[in-house]
Fold:
Amino acid sequence: MLHKRGLALGGSLDNAVLIDDEDTVNPLRFKDEFVRHKVLDLIGDLAVNGRVYGHFIGIKSGHSLNAELSKKIFLQQEAGRC
Structure:
């Protein structure tokens, strides 16, 4: 369905995890693959601010919340508070 809409054109079962109503369609490469993905998303989303030192606890976080946090960090940096 995504390919038909011109999306996820580089995606395949070799480099993505497909999830149906109950489980994954293809096997996970790592037991904690979903956690790894979330951590890499966070690192990428915060990397736009350069080096960020700190401790992060995310509950149901994703790109939107990461972007919001990134913006707040940027504003703090601009104000000279970090």
